[in-house]
Design a protein that fits this description.
The chain has 307 residues and is α/β, with parallel strands linked by helices. The chain contains 12 helices and 9 strands. It is globular and about 50 Å long. One of its GO terms (biological process) is proteolysis.
Length: 307
């Protein structure tokens, strides 16, 4: 089955260690070989600027990561094609895989809409407003202050609306989430789970999930062990529990997957790398119809792609 994965940190891993080869490195959870062999149809690649990068260097580092995306991910991968629209995805041929560039946190743009527009022109098709802490746009979920969107943050969301770009609320403060829900035309949570099942602050509570569904947004169920359960080692079946829960809230047509592969050090038992998506597919087919599974894996995110 085709797979649309809404979040990974391959680019960040290669930026940290330029010797890593995307083709088949054992240091990566996602490799080109695994994508080709395991049914990938669309993979999102995030630009994540770590906190230790000085503020004045963050935009330049974002450009470095975009160069990695094009030179070290796309160029040596014959079946990997950059996609920026829904038509681009639908036009992919057999074995071709769409690659989407995303931004995880607006730290790179400081308080400049020109920098944001530049990243969009270079191919960014989804923008997470924060990582876990504060920037010029909003507070992240771990910022004690818990503030919402700044005036500049509201300008950013309006620009994303004008450009038909996903506004990603994963990592955003609770107040920021609700501010985005008032403004964003294309909201998603690329890699977040249900807080009721696992009370990690990065997860979404029932009211947030229901609001995303009402706004016709998307939720990418993630494989991060700490977001799946609190008490024991996370296993593949814990992913199903979050899927069941979101479906029970009315989200059957609003959920997909955002693995967060290569953004995590610990992995869920049974989902240690991209090739293990096969195990997830087989597990899903035990509980859901083939039509539903196809929606979860690919069609829901495709149908909600805003361009």
């Amino acid at each position: 089955m085709n797979i649309f994965d809404a979040h990974c940190d391959v680019i960040y891993k290669i930026w940290l260690d330029p010797t890593i080869l995307f083709s088949n490195s054992q240091k990566l959870h996602i490799t080109y070989e695994q994508l080709v062999e395991s049914g990938s149809k669309v993979q999102c690649f995030a630009i994540y600027i770590p906190e230790q990068v000085r503020p004045e260097s963050r935009f330049e580092v974002a450009l470095e990561m975009i160069d990695i995306f094009y030179q070290k991910v796309i160029a040596p991968s014959p079946f990997l094609k950059v996609v920026k629209t829904k038509d681009d995805i639908k036009a992919l041929k057999d074995r071709e895989i769409g690659a989407i560039l995303t931004l995880e946190g607006c730290d790179a743009i400081d308080n400049s809409l020109i920098k944001l527009k530049t990243l969009l022109r270079l191919g960014v098709s989804a923008v997470g407003l924060t990582w876990n802490y504060a920037n010029s746009v909003a507070d992240g979920i771990l910022e004690d202050r818990g503030g919402g969107l700044s005036c500049f943050g509201k300008e950013v969301v309006n620009e994303l609306n004008r450009s038909c770009i996903w506004t990603d609320v994963s990592h955003l403060s609770i107040k920021g989430f609700w501010d985005v829900m008032e403004l964003a035309e294309y909201p998603i949570a690329s890699h977040s789970n249900a807080y009721t099942l696992c009370n990690h602050p990065r997860n979404l509570n029932d009211e947030q999930i229901q609001c995303l569904i009402k706004k016709n947004g998307m939720i990418g169920v993630t494989f991060v062990p700490q977001f799946l359960r609190n008490d024991e080692e996370a296993v593949l079946r814990d992913v199903l529990k979050h899927i069941d829960f979101i479906c029970a809230l009315g989200g059957e047509y609003n959920l997909g997957f955002g693995s967060d592969f290569d953004g995590i050090t610990e992995t869920t038992y049974g989902l240690e790398r991209y090739a293990k998506y096969d195990a997830l597919v087989n597990c899903l087919l035990n509980y859901y119809s083939e039509r539903q599974v196809r929606r979860f894996l690919f069609e829901n995110f495709l149908e909600h792609f805003p361009r």
